[in-house]
Design brief:
The chain is an alpha/beta fold and about 230 residues long. About 25% of the residues lie in helices and about 20% in strands. The chain folds into 2 domains: about 180 residues, Spore Coat Polysaccharide Biosynthesis Protein SpsA, Chain A (Alpha-Beta Complex); about 35 residues, no CATH class. The protein is built from 6 helices and 10 strands, in the order E-E-E-H-E-H-H-E-H-E-E-E-E-H-E-H.
């Protein structure tokens, strides 16, 4: 099967300037996701999508392909993942007659990711033809049953009131398991992107990762967490 990894890495970033190129233990941040993909036993093509020449050069240096330069209009802050992946898949089909069976989305901001996780995610989607995609998730630490909004009268309003009359009073051991989308690994069928015009579709498989194994570099404080908790794991 043709298993394609796409790593979207634009040059602009607000939380950390030039984030995808910052040095982590002597390598640019983007290098880690490229290596994760190359070390997967299932992925047989790794592409970086970027509008930035320096990022594209680093991608080639660490073993990824850069068959195109992403249009600048697809590298703005407001642009979501869908048009970026749609562009990549359409380019490969039109220019190379290449159509993958599965697309693996690896965000470059995740320097810790086990290649065997990627393989397990790919296998799970392939084994479940009724699913449109798979997303890695982790169990929440701040449980939604204990989350409130403030209503128009200034009173606390439980977010999960529709699930339980007093959700915030449940014992910890009685709280239902809930998960957040951790952005470590996404696996999607190309038809979900091109036909359903969605990165997820309607039927999503979970792949559960321990929250203590999740690090996403978004703000300067994340670099401090990486240095303390993950420096010996990279």
């Amino acid at each position: 099967m043709n298993i394609l990894a796409i790593i979207p890495a634009r040059g602009g970033s607000k939380g950390i300037k030039r984030k995808n190129l910052i040095s982590i233990k002597g390598k640019p941040l983007i290098a880690y996701s490229i290596e994760h993909a190359l070390n997967s036993k299932h992925i047989n093509r790794v592409i970086v999508s970027s509008e930035d020449d320096e990022i594209l050069a680093a991608a080639v240096q660490y073993g990824a392909e850069v068959p195109f330069k992403r249009p600048k209009e697809l590298a703005e802050d407001h642009v979501l993942d869908f048009p970026v992946f749609e562009h990549a898949l359409n380019f490969l089909k039109e220019k190379e007659n290449y159509e993958p069976d599965v697309v693996v989305h690896l965000r470059p901001t995740c320097p810790f990711r086990k290649p065997e996780w990627i393989d397990q995610c790919v296998e799970r989607l392939i084994q479940n033809p009724e699913a449109d995609s798979l997303r890695s998730v982790s169990e929440v630490k701040q449980h939604p049953y204990r989350v409130f909004t403030i209503d128009q009268n200034g009173m606390l309003l439980p977010v999960m009131l529709h699930e339980h009359p007093l959700p915030y009073l449940l014992r910890r051991q009685d709280l239902p398991k809930m998960y957040y989308y951790n952005c470590v690994i996404d696996v999607t069928r190309p038809k979900t992107i091109l036909e359903k015009r969605s990165m997820t579709g309607d039927r999503l498989l979970p792949f559960v990762i321990d929250p203590d194994d999740v690090i996403d570099i978004d703000a300067p404080d994340d670099l401090k967490i990486l240095e303390v908790l993950f420096k010996d794991r990279l």
